[in-house]
């Protein structure tokens, strides 16, 4: 009886232990899923991105400050010897720039420049694999710190847009470990546009201006659902960036980055608005001139073959020479004394945004001896002379310095130059260079001053109008210089784009494959072209477009047909056939001697088959005319293609032949297309790619399609009766094609049946 009680108690304890263990496992799994779902949320990603970029921006500023203070320390401690001063003033930036160029070139050449042209191209749908890697991130951060620490007229804002995009891409890869949603490519591209706003915000502590700048400068079409993401991430970044300044005791509390205290009761007179308008127009001309000068310098170097070959061999020589030239001209005891060369960019901005009046009625005021404004005073020349010399010299120096192969931007140098011209209208020159209006909002957040919103907006809008009519933006100019596959903007007032149709610019000789083609056709298509996708037609006679197939799928079909498994199967079948033939030709005898001979003969054939297999598979170059291998491959290539296991896009983007160029540009920009098929009642008649569209927009079509009628315009301008008859014929053909397509179906991808799934 006691044994029975013991067994019952032990059984109950076992059941209780198993049930509690199952409950613990279930709770653990649920907690794990809950944590994964929470970590995979957008707000977690945006907080991590904002905090990381704010910390990184602060660290980069800290490194730049150490480099600049070191240069000043060497200059001050060598006052007794002017030659040593000059040597230290010139050698220090040359070493930093050379290190930046060499390190970037060795680790990741994609980190050179601002990075905004590449990000714009990626956001348009073009794949640039090496632009969002960890090596590019490291090269960009270290190279930018060294380049800006040299004191050259370079900017931080544009490279940090690229750095923020790199951080977002790397964070997406990390977050994909917690949730599969971050493996979605289209969603990650949306997060890149958010990262652009973060990049601007962590430089100027301007979340609103950063988001608006990312919309204007980076995106052709902006997704509305990204608004809250951009505002949230940019706000976290700006807040953390200013908190770090307070923590480092650089600031007492969280304020604007460069606060001002202009008059609020009477900020400007109504009669001054025409003066602001004139300044806006002048800024537009200056911005267009800056973009043109930068492009001309690059083209001058590239067109001179001798200089180009020399610089290609000595890649570090060009940045060293440019730095030597700029440093020599800005040497303070030399020519630099006439343009406040002792001040850094941030110190110059502080002096230009203070509330001190520099002159009254044309007479310069006396500056405080303890302030940075004293650097603008010269005993022999007027303060206006120093400002003018600074604007002229820094203008071409900045355009020249941007051509160096180092991570750099142009927003801050242009911003500083604009401040030299007039304080609150610096946004006009920056907006003219970048073709953005959001620079005005950046200025308001940067200075904490919004009283001049009306005159600043007038100046910025007029500057944009002038600059856009003369030159592309700086980023579009760099895209053209780098020859990136980017679709240019249509511009203003080009009514001829509505008169040009797709049939006027499309390619009519289209490479395609048919539903009843053989593997030889696939082989020929792969050899003759380099297209990423190919059109799949019903037949060469009907030209009905059924879908499109990627090049990788065609290669997979050929590999499946001519690959090693089919070769082995063929050799095994052939060996089996030879064995059967030998058995039939040598019938068995009573003593069994024939069976032994058959076994020996089979082993010999097996060895021959192995040797033959080695020659066929391991030595594919040994192919003699009329050999067994050639005959087998020819037979395989002549077989009809089986599309059952092939992934086919049944609905590729299609345009009709009468689609206008303006509408085609909108579709390509909105969907990020690389190409689109042109059909007429389902029949393939051509294809238009990004290249043809770009040529048409840039004016490669005869006389831009303005004075010369397009080739097929006469058919579109036919009479009303002809149009009616044409429409009736098209409707009749459409009904015929519809009835035919109901009787046929596309090959479907092989899917596992329900029984297979259950067995799995």
From TrEMBL:
Keywords: CBS domain, Chloride, Chloride channel, Ion channel, Ion transport, Membrane, Repeat, Signal, Transmembrane, Transmembrane helix, Transport. The keyword Phosphoprotein does not apply. The chain crosses the membrane at residues 43-66, 86-108, 160-179, 191-215, 273-295, 316-335, 395-417, 424-444. InterPro entries: CBS_dom_sf, Cl-channel_core, Cl_channel_volt-gated, ClC. It is found in: Membrane. One of its GO terms (cellular component) is plasma membrane. It holds the Pfam family Voltage_CLC. It is a multi-pass membrane protein. SUPFAM superfamilies: CBS-domain pair, Clc chloride channel. It comes from the Eukaryota. GO terms for molecular function: voltage-gated chloride channel activity. Residues 1-18 form the signal peptide. This is Chloride channel protein. The gene is LOC112267448.
């Amino acid at each position: 009886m006691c044994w029975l009680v013991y067994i019952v108690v032990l059984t109950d304890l076992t059941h209780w232990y198993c049930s509690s263990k199952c409950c613990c496992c279930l709770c653990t799994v649920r907690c794990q899923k809950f944590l994964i779902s929470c970590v995979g949320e957008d707000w977690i990603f945006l907080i991590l991105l904002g905090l990381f970029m704010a910390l990184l921006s602060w660290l980069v500023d800290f490194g730049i400050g150490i480099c600049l203070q070191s240069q000043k320390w060497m200059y001050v401690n060598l006052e007794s010897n002017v030659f040593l001063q000059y040597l230290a003033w010139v050698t220090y930036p040359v070493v930093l720039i050379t290190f930046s160029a060499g390190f970037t070139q060795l680790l990741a050449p994609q980190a050179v420049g601002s990075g905004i042209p590449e990000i714009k191209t990626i956001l348009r749908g073009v794949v640039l694999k090496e632009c969002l890697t960890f090596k590019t991130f490291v090269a960009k951060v270290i190279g930018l710190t060294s380049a800006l620490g040299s004191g050259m007229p370079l900017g931080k804002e544009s490279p940090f847009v690229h750095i923020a995009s790199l951080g977002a891409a790397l964070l997406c890869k990390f977050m994909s470990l917690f949730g599969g949603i971050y493996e979605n490519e289209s969603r990650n591209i949306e997060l890149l546009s958010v990262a652009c706003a973060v990049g601007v915000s962590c430089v100027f502590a301007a979340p609103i201006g950063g988001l608006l700048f990312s919309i204007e400068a980076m995106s052709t079409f902006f997704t509305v659902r990204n608004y809250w993401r951009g505002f949230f991430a940019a706000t976290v970044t700006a807040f953390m960036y200013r908190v770090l300044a307070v923590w480092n005791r650089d600031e007492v509390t969280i304020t604007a980055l460069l606060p001002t205290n202009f008059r609020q009761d009477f900020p400007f007179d109504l009669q001054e608005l025409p003066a602001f308008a004139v300044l806006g127009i002048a800024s537009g001309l200056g911005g267009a001139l800056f973009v043109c000068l930068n492009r001309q310098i690059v083209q001058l170097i590239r067109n001179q073959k001798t200089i180009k070959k020399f610089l290609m061999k000595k890649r570090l020589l060009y940045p060293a020479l440019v730095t030597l030239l700029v440093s020599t001209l800005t040497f303070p005891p030399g020519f630099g004394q006439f343009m406040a060369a002792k001040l850094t960019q941030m110190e110059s901005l502080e002096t230009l945004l203070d509330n001190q009046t520099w002159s009254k009625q044309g007479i310069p005021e006396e500056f405080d001896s303890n302030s940075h404004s004293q650097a603008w005073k010269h005993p022999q020349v007027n303060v206006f002379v120093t400002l003018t010399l600074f604007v002229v010299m820094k203008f071409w120096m900045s355009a020249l310095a941007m051509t160096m192969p180092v991570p750099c931007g142009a927003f801050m140098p242009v911003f500083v130059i604009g401040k030299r011209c007039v304080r609150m209208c610096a946004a006009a020159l920056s907006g003219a260079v970048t073709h953005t209006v959001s620079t005005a909002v950046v200025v308001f957040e940067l200075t904490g001053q919004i009283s001049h919103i009306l005159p600043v907006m007038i100046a910025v809008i007029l500057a944009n109008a002038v600059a856009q009519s003369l030159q592309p933006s700086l980023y579009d100019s760099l895209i053209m210089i780098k020859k990136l596959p980017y679709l240019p903007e249509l511009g203003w007032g080009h009514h001829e784009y509505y008169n040009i149709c797709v049939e006027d610019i499309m390619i009519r000789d289209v490479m395609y494959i048919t539903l009843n083609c053989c593997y030889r056709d696939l082989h020929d298509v792969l050899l003759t072209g380099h297209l990423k996708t190919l059109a799949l037609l019903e037949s060469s006679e009907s030209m009905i477009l059924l879908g499109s197939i990627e090049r990788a799928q065609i290669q997979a079909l050929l590999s499946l047909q001519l690959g090693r498994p089919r070769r082995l199967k063929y050799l095994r079948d052939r060996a089996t056939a030879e064995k059967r033939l030998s058995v039939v030709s040598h019938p068995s005898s009573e003593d069994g001697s024939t069976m032994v001979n058959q076994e020996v003969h089979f082993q010999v054939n097996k060895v021959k088959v192995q040797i033959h297999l080695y020659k066929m598979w391991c030595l594919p170059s040994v192919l003699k005319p009329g050999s067994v291998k050639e005959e087998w491959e020819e037979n395989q290539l002549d077989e009809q293609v089986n599309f059952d296991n092939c992934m086919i896009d049944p609905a590729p983007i299609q345009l009709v032949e009468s689609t206008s160029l303006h509408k085609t540009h909108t579709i390509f920009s909105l969907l990020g297309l690389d190409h689109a098929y042109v059909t007429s009642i389902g029949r393939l008649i051509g294809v238009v790619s990004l290249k043809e569209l770009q040529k048409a927009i840039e004016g490669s079509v005869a006389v831009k399609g303005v004075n010369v009628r397009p080739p097929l315009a006469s058919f579109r301008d036919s009479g009303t009766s002809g149009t009616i008859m044409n429409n009736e014929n098209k409707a009749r053909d459409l009904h015929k094609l519809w009835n035919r397509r109901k009787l046929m179906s596309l090959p479907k991808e092989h899917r596992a049946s329900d029984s297979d799934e259950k067995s799995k």
